[in-house]
Write a structure and sequence with these properties.
Elements (H helix, E strand, L loop, with lengths): L2 H21 L4 H10 L6 H17 L7 H11 L1 H4 L26 H9 L5 H4 L7 E5 L16 E2 L5 E4 L9 H4 L3 E3 L2 H10 L6 E4 L6 H9 L5 E6 L2 H5 L1 H8 L4 E5 L5 H4 L7 E7 L14 H4 L2 H21 E11 L8 H10 L3 E4 L7 E3 L2 E4 L1 H4 L4 E8 L2
Parallel strand pairs: 5-6, 5-8, 6-7, 8-9
Antiparallel strand pairs: 1-3, 1-4, 2-3, 9-13, 10-13, 11-12, 12-13
Helix pairs in contact: 1-2, 1-3, 1-4, 3-4, 9-10, 15-16
Length: about 400
C-alpha cells in the first residue's frame, strides 16, 4: 500500500468506528481485524501503519467526528505530512476542498471532560489516558513462577505477585509459554484487583461478571485450584471463551454459569449466603481504558452512564445476598468516574448498614472514598476503582 492508500484505509475504518460508536456496535479492534481479514493483500507493515493512523486520529478528536475523513483531517492539522497525502492519487483520499471542516481536537467530549474533572481527573491525569499502554503479563502460578519462567524477552517486575511488563506490541501470543498457558496478558491494575480480593485456597468464590475470564483465571491461580470458583455472565459469547482458556491454564476448578438478566438470584439460589468472596467486575464506561480503547470516549452518553450506575447498584445488591456472614465483596470498575466508583459504594453502604469497607492491602493506588483509585499517571496501570467490602452479619 502507498502512504496515501494507508490514509484512505484508515479513513474507511474510522467511518466504521464512528458508526459503531453511535449505535453501540462492535469495538474498534474487532472492526480493524474484520477489515483486514477481507483484505489479505495488505502486509503486516501496512496493517500496523493503518492501525496506528486510526488510533492516532481517535486520540486527537474530542467529540464524535462527522466522518473518518474529518477525524483524519484533524490528525493532519497536527501532522502536516498526513494532509499532503490527501492528493487524489490512486487509492488515496481526495484533495481537501475549500472550507472543508475537520473534527474538533481535544481529549474527549465536553460533557465527559467535565464529569472527569468533577471526579478529580484533569490536567496530566486526563492527558495520560491518551498515552499508549505497555503490555503486562501475569505468570500463571498454577504452572510457573515469575522468578523462574524463561521467556524470549526479559520483562521488568511490576507491583503484583506474578506480573511482568514489556513494551507495547510485544508479540507474546507467539511464545511457547503463552501457548502452554504459563502466561496471560493482563494489565497490572487487573492483577491488583484480583490480589485485593484476598481469595485463597479452599474458598467458595463467585465471579459475578466474568466475561471472557481474565480475572477468573487470576483468582483461580490465587486459589491454587483448591475450592470452588463459579464464573457467571449474561453474555454467552464472552463466557464461552473461558472454557478453553481455563483448560490451557490448568484451572480445573472453574465452573461456568450463563445467567438470564433479571433472574440472576434465581439461578444462583443454591449459593445464597455461601460465598466467601464475590467479585463484582462491573460493566462500566471504560473511562480507565482509553489508552487501549480510545474510541470508548465516543461510545458513552449521559444516558448510558446512568444505565451503568443502575446496573452496578443491582450487581452489588445481588453480591450481598450471595456472600456469607464474614465474607466480602470485591467491587471493581475500569472507570475513573465517581458515578461508577466512589458514589456506588457510598450508596451501597447506606443501603446495607451491616457492611464495612476493608483495606485492600495494595502497594499502589490512592484512597478514594471507601476504596482506592489506580490511574495511568500515578500508578502506570489502566484506570481502576477498587473497593473491598466486608460483611459483619
Amino acid at each position: 500500500m502507498t502512504p496515501a492508500a494507508r490514509v484512505q484505509a484508515a479513513i474507511e475504518l474510522l467511518d466504521a468506528i464512528v458508526d459503531a460508536a453511535q449505535r453501540e456496535g462492535a469495538p474498534a479492534d474487532r472492526l480493524i481485524a474484520d477489515y483486514f481479514r477481507q483484505r489479505r493483500y495488505a502486509g503486516s507493515k501496512d496493517r500496523r501503519a493503518v492501525r496506528e493512523l486510526v488510533y492516532r486520529a481517535i486520540r486527537v478528536c474530542s467529540e464524535v467526528p462527522q466522518s473518518g475523513r474529518a477525524a483524519m483531517g484533524a490528525l493532519g492539522v497536527e501532522d502536516e505530512a498526513i494532509l499532503q497525502l490527501f492528493d487524489g492519487s490512486n487509492h488515496g483520499p481526495a484533495p481537501i476542498g475549500n472550507g472543508e471542516i475537520f473534527a474538533e481536537p481535544g481529549i474527549a467530549p465536553a460533557w465527559l471532560v467535565e464529569q472527569m474533572a468533577a471526579s478529580g481527573i484533569e490536567g496530566e491525569e486526563l492527558t495520560a489516558l491518551m498515552d499508549r499502554a505497555p503490555l503486562d503479563l501475569r505468570v500463571n502460578a498454577l504452572k510457573s513462577d515469575r522468578a523462574e519462567i524463561d521467556l524470549p524477552i526479559e520483562g521488568s517486575h511490576i507491583a503484583s505477585f506474578q506480573g511482568l511488563r514489556f513494551p507495547a506490541g510485544t508479540a507474546v501470543e507467539q511464545w511457547p509459554a503463552y501457548r502452554d498457558g504459563m502466561i496471560e496478558v493482563q494489565d497490572l491494575g487487573s492483577q491488583l484487583a484480583c490480589q485485593a480480593s484476598g481469595t485463597k485456597p479452599g474458598e467458595t468464590v463467585i465471579d459475578l461478571c466474568a466475561g471472557a475470564g481474565g480475572k477468573t483465571l487470576g483468582l483461580a491461580a490465587q486459589m491454587r485450584s483448591e475450592g470452588r470458583l463459579i464464573a457467571c455472565d449474561i453474555d454467552r459469547r464472552r463466557l464461552s471463551k473461558l472454557g478453553p482458556r481455563a483448560e490451557r491454564a490448568g484451572a480445573g476448578l472453574i465452573e461456568t454459569l450463563l445467567l438470564n438478566p433479571g433472574k440472576e438470584l434465581d439461578m444462583l439460589g443454591d449459593l445464597a449466603g455461601q460465598a466467601d468472596c464475590v467479585m463484582v467486575d462491573a460493566p462500566c464506561s471504560g473511562t480507565g481504558t482509553w489508552r487501549r480503547k480510545p474510541e470508548a470516549k465516543w461510545r458513552l452518553t449521559p444516558e448510558r452512564l446512568s444505565r451503568f450506575s443502575a446496573a452496578q447498584d443491582n450487581l452489588l445488591d445481588i453480591a450481598a445476598k450471595l456472600t456469607k456472614p464474614g465474607g466480602r465483596i470485591a467491587y471493581v470498575t475500569c472507570s475513573l468516574l465517581d458515578a461508577e466508583g466512589k458514589d456506588r459504594i457510598a450508596a451501597f453502604l447506606r443501603r446495607n448498614p451491616g457492611w464495612n469497607p476493608l483495606e485492600p492491602g495494595l502497594s499502589l493506588g490512592r484512597i478514594h472514598g471507601a476504596g482506592i483509585r489506580l490511574t495511568p499517571y500515578h500508578d502506570g496501570t489502566d484506570g481502576f476503582f477498587i473497593a473491598i467490602l466486608g460483611s459483619s452479619c
